[in-house]
Amino acid sequence: MKVTYITHACVLLELDNLKILTDPWLVGPCWGGNLWHYPIHKYSPKNLPRPDIIYFSHGHDDHYHVDTIEQFPKSWFKALVVVPRFKEKWWTEALNSRFENIKYFKHNEIFNVNKYLKLQIFFNDLGHIDSSLKIIHKNKSCFLQTDNLMSIKEAERIGKLGKIDFAFVMPFLTGSYPGFYKMKKKVLLEQGKIKNNKSLNLCLNILRKLKPKNVIPYACDTSYLGENFKVNYIHTHDKRHLIQFLKKNKFKSNFLIMNPGDYFKSLNNKLFKKITKYEYNKKSLDKFLVTKTKDFNQYIKKEKEFANINSTNLISKFKEKVKKELKKIKNFNFKISFIIKEKNKESQNLILDLKTKKINFDKLDNNSKYDLKIFIDSYKIKNLMKKKYPMNFATFSNGGFLCERKKLSLTPKELKFWVWMHDISF
Predict the structure, then answer these.
(1) In this structure, which of 40, 150, 405, 406 has its CB flanked by the most CB atoms within 10 Å?
(2) Which residues of the chain fall below pLDDT 50?
(3) CA 30/CA 222 separation, integer angstroms
(4) Residue 361 neighbours by CB under 8 Å, 6+ apart
(5) Residue 153, pLDDT score
(6) How far apart are CA 354 and CA 10, in angstroms?
(7) What kind and span of H or E run contains 380?
């Protein structure tokens, strides 16, 4: 078993003469241009070996990345694609439109690829559309958590199914909070630390139940650019923090921090590895900013150019679509202001009242009482209405907007709003 770390959640496993590639986001940014690969890697579909099996864990585009898939060589489409059989119609439609040789897994299903290799997929048990993969090859096993933030009970169940030699685990929670919410700097930094500690505690508790021999943090090789760059110091993704936290809590395991291109090889019960020095600090982040700013600016320029082609009434169409979707949600007392910004023009204020189920444009009024304000650029709304983003409004959850709310913590009402908003198919 040879395991090469590519980037983020993308791992290449070479098992005898068979190759498995997981969650290949390889080119460009994801989440609407908000997240970029950090550290920088040199991989693309053109310089990787043809995989025999490709695993997609779920539909978020840092795992199922359409721009990367569109650059697959023709031979890659002959690979066996292994995926969870989610109930969501859009998932099967997205896969069936691109791939022919698909193996859909049920929760817990075991698939014997050959007499030496078997795969098992686990669905998230808390209602999230996500999955994990366990690969068992001869007498070695590799567990890939991806973004599957399972319950501790589920982690215990998986741990009892058999030994785990290598566990790739997600150390940090993602999302817009707190970095993309308006609050005082001191409070913002405090909330960032709270979220970081919550993430590390969850990872520790999951690992205690999985009981792997080796722990490898992954699925966090990302960075913000542009005006969002400063949020890198709030939503920290330093893999060393997990290792330090595990050691502090006396978790017994071996630890590996891998950069793109690093690998380990298990042969005759011995572990051979090539591991390079890992850097995550202000100096390396600033260097990354200088290196990637041109690419970022070009990407945003193209996004805006695409948005402005035949863009008449797209903001109004957004309003009408949301108005139509109001019929699908029970009314409750929650008021939202979408402040839609456009360069050299006055921002449009779209008011959504979930108590009266009314949505209308109104003048900007800082004295009005809103439960939530969402500041978002008009080009993003326009591209949303042009069906550019497969994840719909959820595309903006990792840096695509800025929020302001009355209360510091997430309320059940705000959560209900976000679940409904993310379910709208634009």
Answers:
(1) 150
(2) none
(3) 10
(4) 319, 348, 349, 350, 351
(5) 98
(6) 40
(7) helix 378-385
Q: How many helices (H) and strands (E) does the chain have?
A: 9, 22
- Do 54 and 176 touch, CB atoms closer than 8 A? no
Dihedral of alpha carbons 173, 175, 181, 185, sign: positive
Please name which of 202, 199, 204 lies closest in space to residue 172, comparing C-alpha atoms.
Answer: 199
Nearest to 196 by CA among 234, 168, 224, 222: 234
Q: What is the pLDDT of residue 366?
A: 73
Can you list the alpha helix ranges (DSSP code H) found in 269-377?
282-307, 314-325
Query: Does pTM top 0.85 for this prediction?
Result: yes
Indicate the burial class of 102 (C-beta count within 10 angstroms; 0-12, 13-18, 19 or more). middle
User: In DSSP terms, which residues pair with 271 in a beta bridge?
Assistant: 266
| DSSP single-letter state for residue 399 | T
Residues listed for the chain: 426
Tokens at residue 218, please? 């992954």
H/E segment holding residue 159: helix 152-160
Residue with tokens 């919410």: 181
| Cβ neighbours for 423, distance < 8 A, ≥ 6 positions apart | none
User: Helix H segments across 231-271?
Assistant: 239-248
